[in-house]
Amino acid sequence: MVKVKIEKTAEEKILVAAKKVFVAKGMYGARMQDIADEAGINKALLHYYFRSKEKLFEVIFMEAAQKLFPKINSIFESDSSLFEKIEKFAEEYITIISENPYLPLFVLNEVSQDPEIFIKKIWGKQNLPKPQKFLEQIEKEVRKGTIKKISSLHLLLNLISLSIFPFVAKSMIQFTMGLDELQFRNVMEQRKKEVSKFIIDSIKR
């Protein structure tokens, strides 16, 4: 059987290149020339497909966001046990943000400007966050006595915060701890288990 090599279109090359550059330099450190060079095209062609760095970043961001946020909802609404959901949340969240480390700061920036519009944009009007079942599950486990008394909201905030903070403070952590990119990635890989273990150990009886 003869394998046919399918050549990427210019737009596909740009998106692949842009993701590499944004991961390496972030939204603000990246330049359109960097992306053009990575894609092997001239800057004029890049501007033909994407008028600005911001428009290009938005496309890359939406692609990553649409992978992450529906998965979070499916975890919240699944029939898994509370501890399984905590483990799955940390695993999925840290995995996707490790692949797209520019996500947290961009989200914080956009949310600070207009949270309602931004949330509807990334989740869709009919697919907003649905943490209610997860929060009710926490409260149920508290009443049953299987976990310590804790606010369901604070438990969720702890889970999100512990998962996301290292990426928000990535540069500071790397600088103060002397970690290179590979070492930081290894720490984040370990953190998938450490976050869920820390939270579960803190609440279980």
From TrEMBL:
This is TetR/AcrR family transcriptional regulator. Coiled coil: none annotated. Pfam families: TetR_N (PF00440). The lineage of its organism: Bacteria, Pseudomonadati, Bacteroidota, Chitinophagia, Chitinophagales. SUPFAM superfamilies: Homeodomain-like (SSF46689), Tetracyclin repressor-like, C-terminal domain (SSF48498). Residues 8-68 form the HTH tetR-type domain. The chain crosses the membrane at residues 153-173. GO terms for molecular function: DNA binding. Residues 31-50 bind DNA. Keywords: DNA-binding, Membrane, Transmembrane, Transmembrane helix. InterPro entries: Homeodomain-like_sf (IPR009057), HTH-type_TetR-like_transc_reg (IPR050109), HTH_TetR (IPR001647), Tet_transcr_reg_TetR-rel_C_sf (IPR036271).
